[in-house]
């Protein structure tokens, strides 16, 4: 059964409890940061930051009211995943529950997945030479547990369960919001990119949350998948040799 995570942005209060829970469960170290005048902290994804609460100040053009829009963001676990399409080593795949995972043993460190991510939420661990991102807490799922972020959310803004059940709940919730006068309320991510493992209840247009209105896999990713993937073995060997040769040459020029 496909599993999903539903994020109801109308219930999110920006507490960042999900960020902390993600780091704690996955053993991700804290990162030094400074206040830049922006309320998001940290301000970008990294190998040690897989989950972020995005803060967006939004003005209602009809009323002139200004309010904060909060949304938990990270890997969307797309069914049509650009990262999977461009991976020459076959290191990225979907689990039976629909999570997009990375096999560290197969990864050759080419970084194509990070460069091709539709939502720009992947990061590269330079030290370990592998990309890293949210795993949808696949290890917790195997133990019969919900993802750490959903477990920690104090307002119930993050729900986890079977995709059809969450979709039904989302439709019901959006209907309620529309009846309350929130005319832009809708579901985001249920159908985009053939459906995503993470979808949202939004009270405004996707752009207001810094989400692409019509997310698409890039043309280059499609070309790579169609033309070069059948030759994956040769491509992997070629890239592997290039990376090895680059490392050897770099070590030659290191100062004594």
Can you tell me about this structure?
- The protein is α+β, with helices and mostly antiparallel strands and 256 residues long.
- It is built from eight helices and ten strands.
- The strands form four sheets. It has a four-stranded mixed β-sheet with strand order 8-1-10-9. Strands 2-3 form a two-stranded antiparallel sheet. The protein has a two-stranded antiparallel ribbon with strand order 4-5.
- Strand 4 and strand 5 form a beta hairpin.
As for the number of domains, it is 1
The percent range for strand residues is: 15-25%
Mean pLDDT: 89
Fold-level CATH name: Alpha-Beta Plaits
Radius of gyration: 20 Å
Low-confidence stretches: none
Q: What's the architecture in CATH terms?
A: 2-Layer Sandwich
The largest sheet has its strands arranged as 8-1-10-9
**Count of alpha and pi helical runs:** 8
Largest sheet: 4 strands, mixed
Roughly what percent helix?
25-40%
Order of helices and strands: EHEEHEEHEEHHEHEEHH
Number of strands: 10
* Anisotropy-based shape: globular
The CATH class is Alpha Beta
Instruction: Give the distance, in angstroms, between the N- and C-terminal Cα atoms.
Output: 57 Å
Strand-pairing-aware structural class: alpha+beta
């Amino acid at each position: 059964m496909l599993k999903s995570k539903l994020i109801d942005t109308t219930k999110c209060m920006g507490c960042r409890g999900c960020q902390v829970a993600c780091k704690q469960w996955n053993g991700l170290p804290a990162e030094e940061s400074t206040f830049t005048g922006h309320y998001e902290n940290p301000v970008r994804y990294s190998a040690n930051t897989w989950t972020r609460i995005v803060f967006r100040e939004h003005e209602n053009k009809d009323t002139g009211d200004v309010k904060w829009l909060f949304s938990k963001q990270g890997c969307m676990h797309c069914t049509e995943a650009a990262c999977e399409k461009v991976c020459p080593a076959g290191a990225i795949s979907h689990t039976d529950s629909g999570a997009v995972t990375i096999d560290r043993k197969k990864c050759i460190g080419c970084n194509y997945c990070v460069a091709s991510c539709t939502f720009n939420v992947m990061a590269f661990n330079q030290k370990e030479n592998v990309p890293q991102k949210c795993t949808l807490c696949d290890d917790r799922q195997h133990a019969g547990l919900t993802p750490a972020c959903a477990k920690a959310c104090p307002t119930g803004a993050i729900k986890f369960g079977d995709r059809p059940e969450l979709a039904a709940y989302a439709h019901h919730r959006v209907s309620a919001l529309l009846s309350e006068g929130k005319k832009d309320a809708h579901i985001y991510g249920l159908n985009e990119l053939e459906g995503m493992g993470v979808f949202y209840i939004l009270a405004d247009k996707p752009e207001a949350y810094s989400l692409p209105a019509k997310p698409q896999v890039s043309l280059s990713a499609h070309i790579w998948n169609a033309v070069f993937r059948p030759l994956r073995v040769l491509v992997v060997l070629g890239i592997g040799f290039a990376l090895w040769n680059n490392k050897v040459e770099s070590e030659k020029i290191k100062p004594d």
